[in-house]
Specification:
The protein is mostly helical. The chain is 48% helix and 0% strand. The radius of gyration is 17 Å and the shape is globular.
Length: 117
């Protein structure tokens, strides 16, 4: 007997913004990115500049990560899809696109493209 196909459910998580104020940054786990620095700088130009005012602040995220190479690969995926979505939706808010893709990179949230209008 064929099994019924389960429908995919979207999960919405509500976060109290005040609770985010108590989150502390992770400690620095690396002193430099070494051979990964070139890739991190390219990613800053592609997507990081929309999230952090300076490269140094962008770099800190990777220096705090336990596995910076894996995190860079994730951001490369985000940057590739961001550039494609930006071409298809030039009026979309870049921060919203990047945020949606970052959430989607966890394989948990749907991607929503919204216009900046």
């Amino acid at each position: 007997m064929p099994r019924k196909r389960r429908s995919k459910k979207q999960v919405c998580v509500l976060v109290n913004v005040d609770s985010l104020k108590n989150i502390l940054p992770a400690p620095l786990r690396h002193t430099s990115l070494g051979k990964l620095e070139g890739r991190a700088r390219k990613l800053y130009e592609r997507v990081g500049k929309f999230l952090c005012p300076t490269y140094e602040q962008w770099e800190l995220g990777f220096l705090r990560d336990t596995h910076p190479e894996r995190e860079i690969r994730i951001w490369e995926w985000i940057a590739d899809h961001f550039e494609k979505l930006r071409q298809e939706n030039p009026s979309a808010d870049p921060n919203h696109l990047i945020g949606s893709l970052a959430a989607a990179s966890t394989w948990y949230w749907p991607i929503v493209v919204a216009s900046a209008e």
